[in-house]
Design a protein that fits this description.
Jelly Rolls, five-stranded antiparallel beta sheet
Length: 139
């Protein structure tokens, strides 16, 4: 079982009078080749998204506008992180249950993925997630 833990990634930001720029490269700052990108927008304050884990998919979450609290559980570790800067990302390895809670109205969360969409990779029930983890740890 993958033992890598979720971790923050700080991307280099370049700013001048015109504004800021953050460049992100797969297999560099992102620990995988980026095969899918999507974003969640118009997030309502205090509402949450996510509520699932993946068996194989790796992700990096970046709140490009606004702020969100990311709650996660990976193996026996539970934590939460506030993403409130566009040069800050959270790496999510497989077997990590994630919940995204908007701290500001109209926040935008960009998600970079290691593979294309596959419904079979999702674990959408927390009780099943706990059983799945237990079985993987015993294997």
């Amino acid at each position: 079982m993958d033992q890598e833990l979720p971790r923050l990634i700080r991307f280099q930001a370049v700013s001048d009078l015109r504004g800021g720029l953050v460049a992100i490269e797969g297999n560099s700052e992102i620990p995988f080749e980026i095969k899918r990108v999507f974003y969640i927008y118009d997030l309502k304050k205090s509402h949450s998204r996510g509520h699932h884990a993946h068996k194989q998919l790796e992700e990096v979450l970046i709140v490009t506008s606004g702020s969100a609290t990311i709650k996660y559980r990976h193996l026996r570790k539970q934590d939460e992180v506030v993403l409130d800067a566009p040069n800050l990302g959270l790496y999510i390895p497989p077997y990590t249950w994630v919940e995204i809670i908007a701290n500001e109205k109209n926040s935008v969360c960009l998600i970079l993925c290691s593979d294309k969409y596959d419904e079979g990779d999702y674990i959408r029930n927390f009780s099943k997630f706990e059983i799945f983890l237990r079985e993987k740890q015993e294997a």
